[in-house]
Design a protein that fits this description.
single chain; alpha+beta; Alpha-Beta Plaits; three-stranded antiparallel sheet
Length: about 80
């Protein structure tokens, strides 16, 4: 069962993460990590969400983000596509 959507507010810092199912690897080779960073760049060009830091591991990633005050939608809008 999915979690309920959480309320995001500007001015606050959030820890965002995504894990694979059953600990399956998301990143198998160096090129996969590079592709992840290209996707981050593309998303940032569309939505300039402040990213304070991120960490990418074989089966998940973490990101610390800080949406601007009044632009609470930045976190939800920061995606591919």
């Amino acid at each position: 069962m999915p979690r309920r959507a959480r309320s995001i507010q500007g001015r606050y810092i959030y820890h965002v993460l995504n894990r694979s199912n059953a600990r399956a690897k998301l990143f198998l080779q160096e090129e996969d990590y590079a592709a992840f960073e290209r996707i981050l760049d593309e998303a940032f060009l569309r939505v300039p969400l402040r990213i304070l830091g991120y960490c990418v591991m074989p089966n998940h990633w973490h990101m610390v983000v800080w949406p601007r005050d009044g632009l609470d939608h930045e976190v939800a809008d920061f995606r591919v596509g």
